[in-house]
Amino acid sequence: MPVVAAASDSAGNIWLGGPDSIVEWKKGSAKVYRPSVLKDNQHQGGVMALAVDSDGSLLVGMTKDGPGLGLQRFRDRRFTPVMAPGFDGSQHRIVGLFVDHHQALWVGTRDDGLYRLYQGDVEHFTSQDGLSGNTVESFYEDSEGSYGLRRRAASTSFAIWRSKPFLGRFTPRLLNLTM
After folding, report:
1. Sheet hosting strand 105-109, strand order edge to edge
2. Of 11, 33, 53, 136, which residue is least crowded by CB atoms under 10 Å?
3. Based on the structure, what is the number of domains in the chain?
4. Within a domain: residue 163?
5. How confident is the model at residue 175 (pLDDT cuts 50, 70, 90)?
6. CATH number of the structural domain spanning residue 109
7. Could you tell me the residue range of the domain that residue 74 belongs to?
8. In whole angstroms, what separates CA 171 from the centre of its chain?
9. Model pLDDT for residues 105-121, shown as the tens digit of each residue
């Protein structure tokens, strides 16, 4: 299985994602979980992003949308869509996930920009908000609480940061940096 995503949980397990499955790797053993919707997905994008949520469940981002696809929560060996008011995870093609130190979930999509889910609220940022495109693939957070994201297709990195202490809502400022 080609591995395109990885995450580790608080129990020390390593999770790997590929075209048609996720793998839980524990000391001395591995378990493979194959969502039925990815059964025939060997040579296509499948699981592209993994993150562990604050409740310990695994967030699984897939590059296809539709029932059982998109952004799913894997808990107790079951996949369920991540839902929030105005956000249905199965309706998005996911390419990046990140949980920040406030436990906010950042969701990068193939063609619908960036989402931030925090305490039941959803914020959505697109090219209309200053992104140069609507594909967001990876994230980082520095020691000062500034956030960054990367768009591989444009070979451009964007730094997003907040100017006020964190109060729940995120106020982005965008800085385009050519790599």
Report:
1. 94-99, 105-109, 114-118, 121-125
2. 11
3. 1
4. no
5. very low
6. 2.130.10.10
7. 5-135
8. 20
9. 999 999 998 899 999 99
The answer to whether the CB of 89 falls within 8 A of the CB of 82 is: yes
3-state secondary structure of 96: strand
Pairwise CA distance, residues 136 & 149, whole Å: 7
Q: CA 179, CA 177: separation in Å to the nearest integer? A: 6
Is 137:96 a contact under the CB 8 Å cutoff? yes
C-alpha–C-alpha distance, residues 54 and 65, integer Å = 24
In the predicted model, what is the mean pLDDT of residues 45-60? 93
Examine residue 116 and state whether it is found in any structural domain, yes or no.
yes
Q: Are 168 and 142 in contact (CB under 8 A)?
A: no
Q: In this predicted model, what pLDDT tens digit does every residue of 119-129 receive, in sequence order?
A: 999 999 888 87
Residue 173 lies in a domain: no
User: What is the spatial order of strands in the sheet that 47-52 belongs to?
Assistant: 47-52, 58-62, 71-75, 78-81
pTM across the whole model = 0.84
Residue identified by tokens 């994602």 is 17
Bridge partners (DSSP) listed for residue 3: none
94 lies in some domain: yes
The whole-number pLDDT of residue 130 equals: 73
